[in-house]
């Protein structure tokens, strides 16, 4: 049984708003410093913050649109809109942040960039940006830790199985921002010490590669959610055990779950009922079991139960092809 984190939607909105405000302020500071000094690393960091700010706008869109109720056109609701807009956020990190940083780095290395100078302004901007980004990062970490504990998972396991990409996106982009600031600081410092612009260009390329990696990780997460990932294993096991323990059910033949949005799980199951049940008994049992599953598991919002014979060869082959040995154990229970 899973526990829904208290006010998770509200905290996600707070996390995104905080990150968005911080990134906008930092982008302006970095841009001014980059224009004054001509530093490729500073301009790359400015592009990084602009990309992050645009990302927060997309995440806010995701939070708002995904909460719309189900209607005739979308009977299962709009939960997956959160994954769509979050995927666009990952694309924006790559397109507007990574590509610009790589371009600045290559231009600097090959001597096609703007003339550069070192200035105390660059260090001040980077230091202030680090403090502001750290504030946003702490909020993202706090939310992720709280929600992982609420679901009795480790920090890494929660990030891997998370069904709300919003806090993960903010956490990853803020982590990349802090690392990028350190890289920019090193590039500008080495440029000042050696007098060579190569270090500034190398810093820009490292920032670009870092953003590309973050974009890939977030894109992969949202791709899996959009395609239709199964519910977390605890819910799957809990639903299976609950159905198996029902006196009217002889065997759980097939069990399919899919995330329809954040904290929204669709359950479709085929079960072999006791043959002595009447049609009326089957109807009442299906309604009762669906209600029990929705009450027992906060994330389960829709349940479909189909009576089937577990001996049907075509059905058995389909289930075995999908689940292998696990399905074999399901089919053998009760025999």
Automatic annotation (TrEMBL):
Record has Transport as a keyword: yes
GO cellular component terms listed in the entry, alphabetical order: membrane
Membrane topology, as annotated: Multi-pass membrane protein
Record domain Cation efflux protein transmembrane: where: 17-226
Organism: Amycolatopsis pretoriensis
Entry's transmembrane regions: 12-36, 83-103, 123-141, 170-190, 202-219
BP terms from Gene Ontology: zinc ion transport
Coiled coil: none
Signal peptide interval: none
UniProt protein name: Cation diffusion facilitator family transporter
Gene3D superfamilies hit by this protein: Cation efflux protein transmembrane domain
Keywords: Membrane, Transmembrane, Transmembrane helix, Transport
């Amino acid at each position: 049984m899973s526990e829904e984190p208290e006010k998770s939607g509200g905290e996600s909105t707070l996390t995104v708003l905080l990150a968005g405000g911080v990134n906008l302020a930092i982008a302006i500071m970095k841009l001014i410093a980059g224009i004054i000094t001509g530093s490729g690393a500073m301009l790359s960091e400015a592009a990084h913050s602009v990309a992050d700010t645009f990302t927060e706008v997309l995440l806010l869109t995701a939070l708002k649109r995904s909460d719309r109720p189900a209607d005739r056109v979308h009977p299962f609701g709009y939960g997956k809109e959160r994954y769509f807009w979050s995927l666009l956020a990952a694309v924006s990190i790559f397109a507007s942040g990574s590509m610009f940083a790589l371009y600045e780095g290559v231009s600097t290395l090959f001597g096609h960039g703007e003339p550069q100078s070192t200035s105390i302004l660059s260090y001040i901007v980077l230091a202030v940006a680090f403090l502001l980004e750290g504030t946003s990062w702490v909020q993202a970490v706090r939310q992720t830790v709280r929600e992982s504990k609420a679901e009795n998972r480790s920090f890494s396991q929660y990030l891997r199985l998370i069904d709300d990409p919003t806090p993960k996106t903010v956490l990853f982009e803020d982590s990349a921002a802090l690392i990028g600031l350190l890289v920019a600081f090193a590039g500008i410092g080495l440029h000042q010490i050696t007098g060579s612009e190569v270090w500034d260009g190398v810093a820009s390329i490292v920032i670009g590669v870092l953003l590309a990696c973050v974009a890939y990780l977030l894109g992969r997460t949202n791709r899996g959610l959009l395609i239709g990932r199964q519910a977390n294993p605890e819910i799957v096991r809990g639903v299976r055990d609950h159905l198996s323990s029902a006196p009217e059910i002889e065997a759980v033949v097939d069990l399919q779950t899919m995330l329809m949005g954040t904290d929204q799980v669709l359950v479709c199951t085929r079960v072999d009922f006791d043959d002595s049940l009447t049609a009326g008994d089957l109807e009442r049992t299906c309604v009762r079991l669906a209600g029990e599953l929705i009450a027992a598991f906060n994330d389960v919002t829709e349940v479909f139960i189909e009576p089937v014979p577990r001996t049907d060869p075509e059905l058995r082959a389909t289930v075995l092809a999908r689940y292998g040995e696990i399905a074999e154990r399901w089919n053998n229970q009760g025999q």
